[in-house]
What we know:
By secondary structure, the protein is an alpha+beta fold. It contains 13 helices and 15 strands. The protein has 3 domains: 3-53 and 315-451, no CATH class; 61-118 and 280-287, no CATH class; 120-278, no CATH class. 51% of the residues lie in helices and 15% in strands. Strands 6, 7, 8, 9, 10, 11 and 12 form a 7-stranded mixed β-sheet that branches. Strands 5-14-1-15 form a 4-stranded antiparallel β-sheet. Strands 2-3 form a two-stranded antiparallel ribbon. A hairpin with a 5-residue loop joins strand 2 and strand 3 (95-97). The longest helix has 44 residues, at 309-352.
Amino acid sequence: MKTIDIVRRAARSLRSAKTRTILTSLAIAVGAFTITVSLAVGEGARQYADNLINSNVNPKALFIVKDKTLFEGGAQRAAITEYNPDAAQTAAGATIVSMTQKDVDALSARSDIESVVPTYNPVVRYMTFDGSSKKYSADVSTYNDSILSESAYGSLPPQNQQLGDTDAVVPEAFVDTLIKAGVIKEGADLVGKKVTLTAVQATVTPTTDQISAAFATGGQAAVEDLVKPQTKDFTFTIRAVSQKSSSALTGVTAVQIAPNAARAISEFITAGTNEYQKYLGVTALVKGDTDPQKVKEALNNAGYYTQTAKDLQGLIFTVVNTLQGIVLGFGIIALIASVFGIINTQYISVLERTREIGLMKALGMRGRSVSRLFQFEAAWIGFLGGIIGAAIAVVLGVTLNPWVTSVLGLSEGTKLLIFQPLPIAGMIIVLIFIAMLAGWFPARKAAKLDPIEALRTE
């Protein structure tokens, strides 16, 4: 009996038991629906992340450190370690190996990178805005020109162009607080306003000789001035208010200033301490058309640890793939449950059609053909279940895409559910093979039936 004839006969057999066929196919459809949605979400998230990285981060950008734990979720304090004069302690109490000015000079002298800028940590005591005496606490960070930002008010420099040394960018998150305090009437009022950052120099314990010299020249007042923390004001003009949008890579919540200004504040507050001219890392750009990956390998060989824009993309993809794997797991569980449904359905079908099987074998149909008949019936069930589940997923996904985009605050036109024909077709083919495998056991039973005994069955 030809294969095409067996396939057609299998389809006719399923039509004679429509209710049972539909219910078993729906069990397969649940798993197919879950897998189709997970594939669409994974592809949509990867394309969104890829677009986010490519449109926001300069592909030539590098972040270089001397402590690889900064790329591994943060360092943890060990029970006891050997003292390292180049180490620094983070806010979480962990100890990391810092970059020194010597490292910065060595990197600046390399021929394969340029625009080497240390990551400064300009901590200020408080800040004030022009026209108000109220003091505010907020973080201050260095403006990263390799990452594209968007402005709510004012204008930001193009990518790869730095702020002026007296310019500042404040986040849109400041606006509501400053409006309630009466500092401004609307967000646009911040543009052109002065902001003053007050920094306090770290307290350095004077030596006995320094105290004696101060007392000898100025008495007790000179000694008090010697141990009194020094403060200094740094004034900037607000150039723009940065906007938090779905197409921005990070949501900055700090006042951003130029590297030179950040350096001045950092060196002022750390002057005379062990933290002077020590940095978490540096940012740099690959020079010319050199492959960033090759530069990364060269820097690793030189004792540094480097992260490229592609590495950042890979990190995001890892998270996406992990979440997609979890959803896929639920789909696979649903498929496993449906496999037992196919086996049960086909066993019942064999029992109900025992006389029919006996008649077919008595008329010359071989056991192999009988086995294939039941396996093709199972294949039809897998095909129908895959089609139903995938179709429902696609229809719902296309319908709900605008709503999902709106709820997540993504930019207009962004689709988080992206359905691709080839993966869906591949999934349906896999479901057909799984169904055929599930139908093998009942098919084997049907193939081994003795035709005489089968014909005697009531």
